[in-house]
């Protein structure tokens, strides 16, 4: 039996229970993932469909989550655009020759996903046959991808990115155009191969003020979702620290808005209105709290989430590598056992 609870919640339809999945649900907290990572690098996992299928399926079997997320990284298509990167252990993506000038942006190449990333699409086709839950495909958001491309790696303050954005709006626009085309094409290819939903991880866009978001990023997001809309799959827009951007997120054309733990779900709902679903927002650090505390906090989120149709339980950001898998399992059970009204309000 195919479990479509997640898809129905994204579309704000009735569900018997609240669906749950976790960002970074395949990862180092899991002993089998660590064993596979001893033999393959992250990029090598992505290049071997049979391994990538196994890694993607692991959390579905072990945790009982209601959706799978393709195992990949937001930087994979950036490599295919002709900007080489490496993933450094305990650091993240690093680019030797970051984008700073006109010629760097000009050099970025459009690519055919079938030609340049056939292994990713093959992985999705295999998963489509094997999974009994929906597969979430994903792409990096334009600000977040640009931040790695311009900074050359992870950053605290995005100085070079913001400098380019405000001092060379023409060049920023050119970069946004190229990323828009890539995101739409690559997202569509994932859906055609079998992804049932798409999440745009614009993890670091919350570093912008609302006014800068509206000027420099929102028009790009509007175009991206307009270009993906015809695929008729739920489109999730997520970033951290986006409390002040949530009302703008709601009008990008996203079906679902991701929320981190800094904003209570009830507050988020007031900011986004009733035309989008919400996803979130358990603080991943609180998975290290005592069990009773975890349950209490999960219930608070569930109570607020079920006040209106359209809620997907998730963390506010990715699972930390030292998380106890048993705690994740229990959290899934807590979410699944919850029925609105079952807890005293
Ligand atoms: O093998 C490892 O454990 C290396 C760590 C790792 C992993 C597991 C990286 C390097 N990428 C990934 C996989 C990954 N990346 C997934 C897997 C699917 C799942 O959720 O189970 C996803 C969705 C991503 C997307 C991604 N990559 C994001 C957006 C999500 C987020 O966490 O905000 C970002 C920002 C990246 C960049 C990146 N890649 C890797 C790291 C450590 C980082 C973050 C670096 C930074 O802090 O800037």
Automatic annotation (TrEMBL):
Its main location: cytoplasm. Its EC number is 4.1.1.37. Pfam families: URO-D. Signal peptide: none annotated. GO terms for molecular function: uroporphyrinogen decarboxylase activity. It is an enzyme of class 4 (lyase). The record marks 73 as: Transition state stabilizer. InterPro entries: UROD/MetE-like_sf (IPR038071), Uroporphyrinogen_deCO2ase_HemE (IPR006361), Uroporphyrinogen_deCOase (IPR000257). It catalyses: uroporphyrinogen III + 4 H(+) = coproporphyrinogen III + 4 CO2. CDD domains: URO-D (cd00717). Keywords: Cytoplasm, Decarboxylase, Lyase, Porphyrin biosynthesis. SUPFAM superfamilies: UROD/MetE-like. Substrate binds at residues 24-28, 73, 148, 203, 317. Pathway: Porphyrin-containing compound metabolism; protoporphyrin-IX biosynthesis; coproporphyrinogen-III from 5-aminolevulinate: step 4/4. Belongs to the uroporphyrinogen decarboxylase family. Catalyzes the decarboxylation of four acetate groups of uroporphyrinogen-III to yield coproporphyrinogen-III. Homodimer. This is Uroporphyrinogen decarboxylase. The gene is hemE.
């Amino acid at each position: 039996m195919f479990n479509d609870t997640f898809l129905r919640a994204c579309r704000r339809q009735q569900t018997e229970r609240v669906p749950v999945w976790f960002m970074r649900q395949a990862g180092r907290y899991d002993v089998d993932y660590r064993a596979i990572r001893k033999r393959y690098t992250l990029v090598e996992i992505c290049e071997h469909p049979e391994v990538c299928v196994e890694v993607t399926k692991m959390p579905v079997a072990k945790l009982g989550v209601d959706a799978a997320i393709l195992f990949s990284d937001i930087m994979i298509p950036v490599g295919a655009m002709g900007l080489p990167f490496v993933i450094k252990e305990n650091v993240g993506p690093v680019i030797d020759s970051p984008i700073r000038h006109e010629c760097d942006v000009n050099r970025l190449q459009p690519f055919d996903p079938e030609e340049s990333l056939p292994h990713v699409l093959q992985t999705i086709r295999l998963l489509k046959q094997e999974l009994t839950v929906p597969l979430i495909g994903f792409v990096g958001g334009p600000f977040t991808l640009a931040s790695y491309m311009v900074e050359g790696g992870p950053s605290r303050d995005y100085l070079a990115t913001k400098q380019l954005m405000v001092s060379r709006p023409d060049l920023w626009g050119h970069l946004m155009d190229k990323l828009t085309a890539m995101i739409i094409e690559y997202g569509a290819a994932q859906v055609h191969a079998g992804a049932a939903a798409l999440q745009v991880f614009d993890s670091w866009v919350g570093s912008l003020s609302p006014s800068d978001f509206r000027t420099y990023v929102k028009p790009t997001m509007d175009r991206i979702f307009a270009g993906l809309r015809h695929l008729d799959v739920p489109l999730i827009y997520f970033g951290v620290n986006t409390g002040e951007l949530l009302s703008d997120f709601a009008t990008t054309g996203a079906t679902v808005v991701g929320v981190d733990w800094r904003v209570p779900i009830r507050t988020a709902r007031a900011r986004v209105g009733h035309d989008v679903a919400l996803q979130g927002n358990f603080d991943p650090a609180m998975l290290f709290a005592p069990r009773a505390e975890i349950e209490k906090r999960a219930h608070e989120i569930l109570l607020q989430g079920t006040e209106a149709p359209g809620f997907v339980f998730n963390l506010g950001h990715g699972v930390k590598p030292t998380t106890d898998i048993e705690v994740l399992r229990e959290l899934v059970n807590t979410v699944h056992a919850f029925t609105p009204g079952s807890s005293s309000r």
